[in-house]
Design goal:
The complex is a heterodimer of chains A (567) and B (322). Chain A has two domains: 250 residues, Rossmann fold; 275 residues, Rossmann fold (3-Layer(aba) Sandwich), CATH 3.40.50.300. Chain A is built from 22 helices and 20 strands. Classes of the chains: A alpha/beta (567), B mainly alpha (322). At the A-B interface, strand 6, helix 4, strand 11 and helix 12 of A face helix 9 and helix 10 of B.
């Protein structure tokens, strides 16, 4: 035996990262990171925003702005040190050895060039000079990634395709030159959950077929555990824990990894349930399709047969087609569906931002449709909205105190001193220290901003709060804090929530009842547990199956939890 | 796309015609309220030697004894048929005066525009790809170009290239060399706003994720610039053509004077001092036509250059779903 097993393992590694540290100017963001990816294997770098995972990916790809960032250590690809290689010798590796799938497919293709024109750049890496042959290979690849009409895609501009199609295009362009390693930076976080599953399945198949290694960057432990052979957990630019996915996931060794695991919604469906008043299936047994039922006393929101159409491309699109749902006081109802399912339109109708073409909407017993602006304004005092993205919904130049006070000023509530008192109380209620009031929104973290947004909604003492994907822009661990806060506020203030989301695992944690929307229609509704355990509609089943971690090997405690969660 | 584009193009062309007509009317009214009476000042000037009969004929032709509104309608009617009238100073047809001066000015303005584009692209490329300190210097060029008056540039170029280096002679202002330096004089201030827009566009586009992705595909910086970045960065400058044409028209008057060229600038100068109403009216209207035509071309080109430009205001302002 001349080689010990360790040496063989090292020589089989395609990518070896040793002692990698990265600094932006004097600020170190990555400290002494080490991991390796074997040929054909997949490894996930997981961590929250600011953990340095994307920076590491860019360093490996040599895409860091060299004027600002300095990387030290060793990043070896097939034994060659990527960091010290002159650009001339590294460039031939780009695309051919090292592929890159970026985060946001909508901005990853040049908006003023056709897909075909950009695909030729990737095809050129194969060394093929005949444009006709390249074109054939491109079309072939586009078909292979599951695009239904490759010719049309080839001639399209990026804005003419959906996010899922664009991500397929990007995967096709990355795979086309047959790289040995693909670095995928949050490849599906901008996509709907069902599309995410399809894309990840397709990528997994392609990798197997072509023996391509994968370095997956993600904030989602569930996706990492499901899709990667091994995991590296990062926090503040340093490795917390690493090992085989199954081991790290089943028995996390560090507190940080444990908390990440605990924050995965799919694993802990009852996490917030204990904090809430138990829900006894409010409707009768056959309430699953409640459309058209008579209004019952105690409904804070009652939407009956609402229809809304928009003209688009010469014909009308039904954004809401006879949508009905109702929410009891102090309960949480979820609207679930993918992009284009009509959930945003339903919310806009509820808020009186659009008028329905048919049907009736009542909030706290008052109709919102067909009334004057002043009436709608009054209804809005009882009906507040928390937006999806706290990074864009708050004016970054305003101080928090003014942001929270604005609705009071708008409605002319109380004296100046009373308003200041209300603002203090609202900030306290959302768990923010009082000195935050004098800070500007731009200086707060995402979680703090969303708390400000919630305080702003609560300050006028509404009965109903519409939560439009309130955590989709936040990290998983921050999301848990916000959901906890929302549950607490609901219990203390008796709030009624309408929770809009595409994430069924999350909905299961927070909602009592749910309506599943598809193309403007409610395909299924009822109590959350029932929908989860006995989904009737194939679309609901598809949504449920798309929750990551539906298929992790069983045999330990986490998997049992998992099996329960996804049963 | 095509039927939408046709409708869009026809609407824009219609709007352009309306703008030209309004410009014509406005010019006419402004000239007519200017102090001074064309008849007494020009026609009855004994130096002109016009007979009373000639004067009567001219007065009748322009309706000078009629109210302004009638004069306007007469003049507008002739304009629509392409008839520009006669100069009050020289009795030559206005179309001939303008037609003689136009080629020289067009040559100057067109070559200035081309030179300005070359300057702007070179400056923007340098600002993007030169190493740190040099890039900073190159970035300050546009504001320097913008702050030096046109006539100073012209005088410096003449002093340097005509008198010291003898690259051209000022006695033959229409020679190719003299035209080149006149065009450079005109191009320098015009290139500044173009370069600034290009620099800002390149800064923006090179930070976009698609630039990163293209780089990851092994494109060299030069290829990335040429194939990916130039077009989207240049799109905003297409809209700037309006400003540039204004600058070219205004600047050419000064440049022609400095370099002693005969062009539209000289015609305007003579017409203003001589209160030659028909010539002034024709030149201003011509400028309006050029201005509007260039803008029309820019408008019509932008949907062809940028596939994202929507031709019809969609009523579906809110997206269905998030």
């Amino acid at each position: 035996m001349t080689l010990n097993p360790k040496d063989t393992a090292v020589s089989a590694d395609l990518l070896t990262v040793q002692g990698l540290s990265i600094a932006y100017g004097p600020t170190a963001v990555v400290h002494d990171v080490a991991f390796s990816v074997a040929k054909g294997e997949s490894l996930a770098l997981i961590g929250e925003s600011g953990s340095g995972k994307s920076t590491i990916a860019k360093a490996i790809l040599r895409l860091l702005p060299h004027s600002e960032a300095t990387a030290t250590g060793r990043v070896a690809l097939n034994g060659r040190d990527v960091l010290t290689l002159p650009e001339k010798q590294f460039r031939p590796l780009r695309g051919r050895e090292l592929g890159f799938i970026p985060q946001d497919p909508a901005s990853a293709l040049n908006p003023v060039r056709t897909i075909g024109a950009q695909a030729h750049e990737a095809a050129a890496l194969l060394g093929e000079t005949d444009p006709a042959v390249r074109r054939a290979k491109i079309l072939d690849m586009l078909e292979q990634v599951g695009l239904p009409d490759p010719l049309r895609v080839y001639d399209s501009y990026p804005h003419q395709l959906s996010g899922g199609m664009l991500q397929r295009v990007l995967i096709a362009l990355t795979v086309l030159p047959r790289p040995s390693l693909i670095v995928a930076d949050e490849p599906t976080s901008a996509l709907d959950v069902t599309v995410q599953k399809l894309i990840l399945d397709m990528l997994t198949d392609l990798r197997r077929e072509l023996d391509i290694s994968l370095l997956l960057i993600t904030h989602d432990l569930a996706i990492a555990a499901e899709r990667a052979d091994s995991l590296v957990v990062l926090k503040d630019g340093a490795v917390q824990e690493s090992g085989a996915s199954r081991d790290v996931f089943a028995s996390p060794a560090t507190d940080y990894a444990r908390s990440l695991q605990a924050d995965v919604p799919a694993l802990h469906p009852d996490r917030y349930r204990s904090q809430r008043v138990p829900f006894k299936g409010a409707h009768d047994g056959d309430s699953r399709t409640r459309a058209g039922a008579s209004p019952t006393a105690g409904f804070q929101i009652d939407v009956r047969g609402v229809t809304k159409r928009f003209p688009a491309g010469g014909k009308d699109v039904l954004a809401c087609d006879g949508v009905s749902f109702s929410v009891e006081r102090g309960r949480t109802h979820a609207l679930v569906g993918e992009s284009g399912s009509g959930k945003t339109t339903a919310v806009r109708l509820l808020l009186g931002l659009e008028q329905p073409d048919g049907g009736d909407i009542e909030v706290a017993g008052q109709s919102t449709s067909g009334r004057s602006r002043a009436d709608v304004r009054e209804i809005r005092r009882h009906l507040q909205l928390v937006y999806q993205n706290p990074f864009t919904s708050l004016d970054p130049t305003w101080r928090v105190g003014r942001l929270v006070r604005e609705p009071l000023d708008q409605f002319g509530v109380g004296t100046k001193a009373e308003r200041a008192q209300s603002v203090r109380e609202a900030l306290e209620a959302v768990g923010l220290p009082s000195d935050v009031a004098s800070r500007r929104a731009a200086h707060l973290s995402g979680g703090q901003r969303q708390r400000v947004a919630i305080a702003r909604a609560l300050v006028v003492r509404p009965d109903v709060v519409v939560l439009d994907e309130p955590t989709s822009a936040l990290d998983v661990s921050v999301q848990a804090g916000i959901l906890e806060l929302l549950s607490k506020l609901q219990r203390e203030l008796g709030l009624t929530y309408l929770f809009v989301s595409h994430d069924l695992a999350l909905v299961r944690q927070v909602a009592d009842t749910v309506s599943v929307l598809r193309r403007g229609q409610v395909v299924e509704d009822g109590p959350v547990e029932e929908i989860f355990h006995r989904p009737q509609h194939p679309y609901t089943r598809a949504l449920l199956e798309a929750i990551p971690l539906a298929t992790v090997p069983a045999g330990d405690q986490a998997s049992k939890q998992l099996a329960k969660a996804t049963a | 796309m095509t039927s939408d584009y046709k409708r869009f193009a026809l609407t824009r062309a219609g709007q352009a015609i309306v703008v030209v007509l309004l410009a014509y009317v406005l010019t006419f009214l402004v000239i007519s309220v200017l102090p001074g009476d064309a008849i007494t000042n020009t026609l009855r000037d004994p130096q002109h030697g016009l007979s009373e009969e000639d004067i009567q004929r001219i007065v009748a032709f322009y309706g000078l004894d009629q109210p302004v509104i009638v004069q306007l309608l007469l003049s507008l009617g002739r304009f629509l048929t392409g008839e520009l009238g006669f100069s009050l100073q020289s009795n030559l047809p206005v179309s001939q005066i303008v037609g003689d001066a136009l080629p020289s000015t067009l040559t100057l303005a067109t070559s200035a525009l081309l030179i300005a584009i070359v300057f702007a692209v070179v400056i923007a490329y340098g600002a993007q790809y030169l190493p740190g300190r040099w890039a900073a210097i190159v970035r300050s060029i546009p504001s320097f170009f913008l702050s030096v008056p046109n006539f100073v540039i012209g005088l410096v170029l003449i002093e340097l290239f005509a008198f010291r280096l003898h690259s051209f002679t000022t006695t033959d202002p229409n020679s190719a060399a003299a035209t080149l330096f006149a065009a450079i004089t005109l191009a320098i201030p015009v290139s500044a706003p173009l370069a600034e827009v290009l620099i800002a566009g390149l800064d923006h586009e090179s930070r976009q994720e698609y630039a990163l992705v293209a780089r990851s595909r092994g494109l060299t910086e030069a290829k990335l610039f040429a194939k990916h970045l130039v077009k989207p960065s240049a799109l905003p400058s297409v809209a700037m053509v309006a400003l540039i044409v204004g600058e070219l028209l205004g600047g050419s008057v000064i440049t022609e004077t400095i370099f002693g060229r005969d062009g539209i600038g000289t015609v305007v100068q003579k017409a203003v001092t001589g209160e030659d109403q028909p010539v002034l009216q024709a030149v201003v209207s011509l400028s309006a036509v050029v201005f509007v035509a260039v803008n029309l071309v820019a408008d019509l080109a932008s949907p062809l250059l940028d596939p994202r430009v929507k031709l019809r205001e969609s009523k579906l302002r809110e997206k269905v779903g998030p």
